[in-house]
Design brief:
The complex is a heterodimer of chains A (about 270) and B (about 350). By secondary structure, chain A is mainly alpha-helical. Chain A is built from twelve helices and no strands. In chain A, helix 11 runs antiparallel to helix 12. Helix content of chain B is about 20%, strand content about 35%. The relative contact order of chain B is 0.12. The chains are: A mainly alpha (about 270), B alpha+beta (about 350). Chains A and B meet through helix 8 and helix 9 of A and strand 7 and helix 4 of B.
């Protein structure tokens, strides 16, 4: 009875692995690495790379600057309606990106909620790089929030109390105690959010369009290229896989180092008094 | 002169903490079972929790006054807080921990004999070392009040005695109002000038350790001080003594007056053990089987079905006591204290 079941488990695992890895391997097997690098030199690819890096950098910086203090507040304070706020923050996670794009248009579009005010100020957002930044920030921020709140919640409240009795103002407690102790979790959340932001497609194409050199990010470039020049689409995809793998390895490595340091400090023979 | 005056009313989950206390440059221990509100008292003084009503004042400086609308933030009060488990910052070295609030760490590290650990991280320290770091950190800003939450609880029994002696000397030297929370009466008696017994948010008795032992206000205080507390029925007997019946047919005599339901309070170290019923001046002899023997330092705690006796390890060896054997426990009627028994609630 046991042997057939074990075989079934092994088979299921093999199917899952093959299914997940085969398409990825196909990208690298279809085109030789040299040609992949060459395709990255194409004009459209270079433009998309620049747009992606710029918009992601700005969006990510904004998410970190606003999201970190907000996550700290949500992690530390207990107030009425807190769980509602936490749920609302995670709502974009379960939305299809296309819905996010429509929602952003409805808010910031010409005929949108803030359209009149923005028009009066002479600001037009849809189909500009600002729209890309908003779309990327919108879809990636819940990823950061989730991880950052969990990271701050994991900081022992007694340490915060101890810092206060030692004369530290709340701001100093945040900078000297909470932030360093949550740094690992914040870094992981930041990496996941960045990866999600770089891959953003649906909301961007609806809210910002796909203008080469302006709003065409790398994922949009893949979509634009795959009918004209499949090799270029492959090359950009390969680039994404490389970046994604790098992020994952960094995260795992960090997790492993953290575990190792906890392990060392727990079980090392301490110098006794 | 440094002093701390508190008068607090603080609603906790199961009861209200109501406590008034004044302390000069002395160590006052708050003892009581876990969940009696001891830690909340310290947190209220430090400003980490806000009482519903009351005042907290240190040497005339008002830190909290609900009537006057004064509530100073924790960082603006001058307390040195040694937290339970010490709450050292794990990401900072020992000297950074100690100088976190400003002030110089070198002299304190030297004074507490941990200067060789200045560069170490808290995770690399033993329990006793962590406690000293926590003390140094709490003292670095030269606080006007010292608050210690179970400073001995995280230590193993071996280091405990030594650390207790060191802490005792340090507290004497500092001459600050120090409030010490502990669930261990022995720690409290060893470290504090006065001990307050806190039960369900109320102070049952405050006094010098000897006072609490000698005349406990109620059986609860006595039990906390380490006494055997036995419920039974008291009645006066012809010879001017009180006859106390418990556990069915067991009878002992006390010089205290009592009638009806009462609690017999008897300290383990007042009980002597013998193989045979001795013909001595002690009025009370109770026979029983030894349930267990536990050595604590140079003494042995002998548990009988109805009470615990504490004798020297030497005596225990001379009598060759073993679990399961019958012994006679003897004590004088003057050592058998009687208190009203309406205390278990």
């Amino acid at each position: 009875m046991r042997a057939p079941f074990a075989a079934l488990l092994a088979l299921a695992t093999a199917i899952a692995l093959a299914f997940l890895l085969l398409p990825i391997a196909a990208i690298f097997l279809r085109v030789p690495p040299g040609d992949l690098l060459g395709a990255l030199g194409h004009r459209a690819t270079r433009d998309a790379l620049v747009v992606s890096l710029e918009t992601s950098a700005i969006a990510h910086a904004a998410v970190l600057i606003v999201g970190t203090p907000a996550a700290y507040l949500l992690a530390r304070r207990r107030f009425r309606g807190r769980s509602v706020v936490l749920t609302l923050i995670e709502l974009p996670l379960v939305l299809p990106p296309a819905v996010a794009g429509i929602a952003l248009l409805a808010a910031f579009g010409r005929a949108g909620l803030l359209g009149g005010e923005l028009h009066a100020l002479g600001v037009q957002i849809p189909f500009t790089q600002a729209a890309v930044i908003l779309a990327v920030a919108f879809v990636e921020s819940p990823f950061y929030f989730r991880g950052a709140i969990a990271a701050f919640e994991a900081v022992d409240g007694t340490l915060v109390d101890a810092a206060r009795t030692l004369g530290a103002t709340p701001g100093r407690v945040f900078l000297r105690v909470a932030l360093p102790l949550a740094a690992g979790g914040l870094g992981a959340a930041s990496a996941l959010a960045l990866a999600r932001g770089l891959g953003e497609f649906g909301a961007t194409i609806i809210f910002a369009g796909s203008l080469q050199g302006v709003t065409q990010t790398l994922p949009l470039a893949i979509y634009a290229q795959f009918e004209q020049d499949f090799d270029t689409a492959l090359a950009i995809s390969a680039l994404f896989i490389a970046v994604g793998a790098l992020l994952l390895v960094t995260l795992k490595l960090y997790g492993w180092l953290r575990f190792a340091s906890i392990f060392r400090s727990r079980f090392a023979p301490s110098t006794s008094s | 002169m440094a002093s701390l005056r508190i008068d607090l009313s603080l609603p906790l989950r199961a009861f209200d903490l109501e406590l008034a206390l004044e302390a000069g440059p002395e160590t006052v221990a708050l003892v009581g079972p876990s969940g009696s509100g001891k830690t909340s008292v310290l947190r209220a003084i430090a400003g980490l929790v806000r009482p519903a009503r009351g005042t907290v004042a240190c040497s005339g400086d008002v830190w909290f006054d609900s009537a006057a609308g004064i509530d100073r933030r924790p960082e603006d009060r001058s307390v040195g807080f040694v937290f339970q488990e010490y709450a050292l910052f794990p990401h900072l070295s020992v000297d950074r921990n100690v100088s976190f609030g400003g002030g110089r760490s070198d002299e304190l590290l030297r004074r507490l004999r941990i200067e060789h650990l200045a560069r170490a991280k808290p995770s690399e320290l033993s329990g006793g070392e962590r406690q000293r770091v926590a003390l140094a950190r709490a003292l670095a800003r030269e606080p006007r009040v010292l608050l210690l939450d179970e400073p001995m609880a995280a230590l193993d029994p071996h280091t405990r005695g030594k650390v207790r002696a060191e802490l005792h000397d340090l507290l004497r030297e500092l001459a600050l109002p120090a409030l010490l929370v502990t669930h261990d009466f022995e720690d409290a008696a060893a470290l504090a000038d006065r001990v307050g017994v806190l039960v369900e948010g109320r102070l049952r008795q405050v006094g010098a350790p000897a006072e609490l032992l000698g005349s406990p206000a109620d059986p609860y205080v006595a039990e906390f001080a380490g006494a055997n507390v036995i419920d039974g029925i008291a009645e006066s007997s012809r010879d001017g003594l009180t006859r106390f019946r418990f556990d069915g047919e067991r009878v002992v005599y006390s010089t205290d007056a009592a009638r009806g339901r009462a609690a017999l309070v008897l300290y383990p170290w007042d009980v002597s053990l013998a193989r045979l019923r001795a013909d001595d001046s002690a009025l009370n002899h109770l026979e029983g089987e030894i349930l267990s023997l536990v050595q604590v330092g140079n003494r042995v705690r002998v548990r009988l079905p109805f009470l615990t006796a504490e004798i020297t390890a030497a005596s225990a060896e001379r009598l060759a006591l073993r679990p399961g054997e019958a012994v006679v426990a003897s004590f004088k009627a003057t050592q058998a204290r009687l208190l009203p028994s309406d205390w278990r609630g």
